[in-house]
Amino acid sequence: MAETDLVVGIDLGTTHSLVSVVDSGFPIVLADGDGRRILPSVVSYQDSGDVLVGSAALRNRVVAPEQTIGSVKRVIGRSYSSLSQEEIETLPFSIEQAEGDQIAVRIGKSGTKSPEEISAEILARLKQTAEAAMEQPLEYVVITVPAYFNHRQREATRQAAELAGWSVKRIINEPTAAALAYGLDRGADHERVAVYDLGGGTFDLSILELREGIFEVIATAGDTRLGGDDIDRAVAVWLQNELGLSELTLSAEQQAKIDIAARRAKEDLSTEEQVSIELPFFDGSQSYSTSLDRATLESLALPWLEKTRTICQKAFLEAEHKGAGEIDHLILVGGSTQMPLVREKLQEWFGTEPDVTQHPDEAIAIGAGLQAGILCGRVRQVVLLDVVPLSLGIETIGGLMNVIIPRNTTIPAKAGEMFTNAVPNQSSMAVRILQGEREMAADNWLLGDITVPFEPSPKGGARVGVQFEIDENGLLTVLARDTKTGIDLTLSIENAAVDVTDEAVEQMVSESIEHAFDDMNQRILTEVRMKSEELLPAVDTALAMIGDKLPAEQRQQIEQAAQSVRLLTEQENPPVAELKSANQVLDDSTQHLAALLVEQAMDQAFE
Predict the structure, then answer these.
(1) Residue 184's pLDDT band (cuts 50, 70, 90)
(2) Three-class SS string for 35-92?
(3) One of 116, 117, 121, 197 is an active-site residue; which one?
(4) Most CB within 10 Å of its CB: which of 99, 448, 489, 575?
């Protein structure tokens, strides 16, 4: 990419998508030929082979609901087996299990499309809009994703962009983009900002620190399966019950009419106290009508908003642990934050009046455009620092998690450690790459593994260096090197068979807090047991080598201490303190034995 090449920013949203660019020093959201800046994230496949995208596709939903796909972002980059049956049933489109546990979206009777292919249609339409507005071909793009998108979801987003003809220069988190949009025109030397991002299909809260043009993420938490779509669905269920339609078997067209009416009512109630809902000629002849007031809507929405409160508390707790003080601003992002209830509850929960100076639908796109402007030189003196959402490490002996890159490390980042073989004559080492916050490897996600071969060596004889490098897009590359041969083995996680469920993403941090004491006790027990397993054979070998040079009283003392350790290690869950004390007694009792071994070795050396 030449420095003069233009880079644009795209907010690929669950409900709406936008494209922006920095022009003459200012970020702007680009409009299509009809003057619309917001593109509905909806694609409709026609029997003729034509593809409708955006508003035209949305209008076609009632006519051809089974061929019209919206909210596909909810399944991009996910495996079929990661979806619960309840989630499959509530998706606004039908899916099938494809080869390799992939998701295939059913397009009426004409076949299936992958979520990446459908998303590519939206990205291609945004490319057309941007090229027409800027009057030049465009290639490079910055795309935003939810902060808690895992490696596979980020890579799937990249693949969708490439299918649409884009070259992705950077993938950034949506709350980070929103904070970038907020902070560029502020002159404060030091501020802390919380970004509350409630979109159509995902929710994130990120806490960032702004210092003299540097944007650093302090903490982040989120749920990739929580958003305005859930509130729309609750309103649709209420509407069916209210009109007595819940007992009927509804066609896809009828369900589409209900869903569209429910969403429109929710949006109108952001500014109205009560709205009428009309379903004319619902079944061809019968029409239905009712009204919905804001109080009823808020009672339907509140359970979903309460879920965001729990997630927010996790992020604030994480920030507190890192020494961050109170926030200066609470920024709202996402169309669902236009509900008055959201603003009222946030002020009630956190004692901070939400900042509504940014357009909630456009803030993320503006931030993406600013980041694009930074990359192509149209914006200066701004640095964007994102973080690793969960710790990255490897499994070590005893099934422990050894962290290489801790959670909330600023990216891009690179770190590594040296490891050695734990077993004599070992000829290879399995490097198991993990992500998570638990002390034991089995409780974290396995992202992939590398097997490093080396010459059979005595215990501790081999040396394998392991290096983690995570780039600005949050994609991880692991390098493992046998230091004797200098041979490198690498693994790019985005290309591995990663299958991490969103449920695990959402629960990992809370589980690490919930099980913190148990996990730490298990880690301490494992380490103490490993110490015992090292001591016992070493003592047995030393006693055999020293023979009768050790006084009988001392031998008996050592054997008794060793037996105490042995009996404790045979227990499934021995008392940690007792085993640790027994190890210490055995270690202390062998001091004279160790000295005799040294003397014996020196005598043999001079013979």
Answers:
(1) very low
(2) CCCCEECEEEECCCCCEEECHHHHHCCCCCHHHEEECHHHCCCCCHHHCCHHHHHHCC
(3) 197
(4) 448
Helix or strand run (H / E) with residue 543 = helix 516-546
Catalytic residue among 11, 66, 117, 121: 11
Asked about 355 being catalytic, the answer comes back as no
Give the predicted TM-score (pTM) of the model. 0.64
Other beta carbons within 10 Å of 204 = 31
Known catalytic membership, residue 257: no
CATH of domain 228-300: 3.90.640.10
Can 197 be counted among the known catalytic residues? yes
Q: What is the pLDDT of residues 485-535, one digit of tens each?
A: 778 888 777 533 233 444 555 566 566 566 666 666 767 777 777 787 777
- Amino acid identity, residue 579? L
Give the integer Cα–Cα distance in Å for 332 and 355: 7
Reference 225, options 78, 80, 354; nearest CA is 78
Domain 392-514, CATH among 3.30.450.20, 2.60.34.10, 2.40.37.10, 3.20.20.70? 2.60.34.10
Set 73, 113, 169, 266: catalytic member: 73
Annotated active-site residue 580? The verdict is no
> Closest Cα partner for 235 from 206, 207, 195, 267?
267
Choosing from 66, 116, 121, 174, which is the catalytic residue? Answer: 174
Instruction: Kindly write down the DSSP assignment for every residue of 107-140, as one continuous string.
Output: -TTS-EE-HHHHHHHHHHHHHHHHHHHHTS---E
**Which tokens is 100 given?**
């390799």
458 prior amide bond cis, ω within 30: no
Topology given in CATH for the domain delimited by 7-226+301-387: Nucleotidyltransferase; domain 5 (3.30.420)
3-state secondary structure of 402: strand
